[in-house]
Amino acid sequence: MATPMTAAQIVAQLKKFDIPFKEFKNWKTHNRSHKGPWGPVNGFMVHHTGSDSKDQRALLYDGFAALPGPLSHFGLAQDGTVHLIGWGRANHAGLGDDDVLQAVINEKALPPDNESNTDGNRHFYGVEIWYSGSHQMTNAQYATLRRLAAAVCDFHGWNEKSVLGHGEWGSPGKWDPGMAPGRMMDMGKVRSDIKATLAEGKPTTPSKPKPKPVKPKPPAFPGRGYFRPGAKNQFVTQLGKQLIKRGYTRFYSVGAGPTWTGSDRAAVKAFQRAQGWKGSDADGYPGPSTWSRLFS
Predict the structure, then answer these.
(1) How far, in Å, CA of 246 to CA of 42, rounded?
(2) Which parts of the chain are beta strand (E)?
(3) Which of 144, 147, 137 is nearest to 177 (CA)?
(4) How far apart are CA 35 and CA 70, in angstroms?
(5) Are strands 82-84 and 74-76 parallel, antiparallel or unpaired?
(6) What is the DSSP annotation of 135-203?
């Protein structure tokens, strides 16, 4: 026996399964729970509205004189968007067969629905799909229906046999969700597709490949004349900072400065020798090779 999800929990499930949804008015507190209990919940019931109207939120929210709203928990639009209509007891299932309820609870094959003796509004989540039922629902609606049913079942640990059509419940004359006039969809096939969706788990959005880091090019060598006794310029400072970054801190007691000194030459010479260079290649004055290697 399952306690119904809270409004926050169903929103989390919709997000978990990447289901597009919109919230309508004060759906979180809109219900018929003052007329009877909601729960324990045992399954998920599928309906069609009987209309191809593009916006059926108000009808599902308000209902009508003989049957006040909410008329479902979810409204499923033609573009595949789920509209949250109410949360709590809703007027969607009506009376049905207690043997069908027991089969749903046990997740067994459904028996013939030949009685109307059990309050279905207490025991089921309900979705009203916005179409007449005299033709098939849109592909977007069916894709979302599969994920919505899977999201509900996933939360409660149910399998696909916890899903049923209104026409399997026991209300006389009901044939929803329909696929042709007076003809209900093959709910066995629907449940099989929901089973596959549950097996797939949470949809994953393909991650974009991370761009390969671009190795920065070393700054262009300014010329040997910038690194001679008495020279004072920004390139001397730049060189000293890079030598300190490379670990030659012992040559710079007060940090890198703009004036070329013996400390700079000693640090450059130590770096050159660390590269295995000798002779004029390790004289302490930077050339293009030293500069490129130092900044690489």
Answers:
(1) 67
(2) 21-23, 43-48, 63-64, 67-68, 74-76, 82-84, 95-96, 118-119, 124-129, 163-165, 178-180, 183-184
(3) 137
(4) 12
(5) antiparallel
(6) SPPPHHHHHHHHHHHHHHHHHHT--GGGEEEGGGTT-TT--PSEEETTEE--HHHHHHHHHHHHHH-S-
The predicted-structure confidence for 211-225, as pLDDT tens digits, reads as follows 777 767 778 998 988
> What phi, psi does 128 have (nearest 5°)?
-105, 115
**What is the SS3 assignment for 102?**
helix
Residue 58 CA to residue 81 CA, distance in Å, equals 16
Token pair belonging to 192: 């099989």
Convert the pLDDT of each residue in 271-284 to its tens digit.
999 999 999 899 99
Q: Which residue has the tokens 């399998």?
A: 159
- Please write the tens of the pLDDT for every residue from 116-150: 999 999 999 999 999 999 999 999 999 999 999 99
- Please answer whether residues 90 and 41 qualify as being in contact, where contact means their C-beta atoms are separated by less than 8 angstroms: no
Please tell me whether residue 55 adopts helix, strand or coil conformation. Answer: coil
- At 66 the three-state DSSP class reads coil
pTM of the model: 0.69
Q: And the tokens for 65?
A: 């004189």
Closest C-alpha among 117, 165, 133, 167 to residue 52: 133
Beta bridge partners of 184: 178
Strand, helix or coil for residue 104: helix
The two beta strands, 63-64 and 67-68, are antiparallel
Q: How far is CA 75 from CA 61, 102, 125, 134, 145, in A?
A: 9, 26, 12, 18, 10
**DSSP letter, residue 224:** G
CA 103, 106, 107, 108 torsion-angle sign: negative
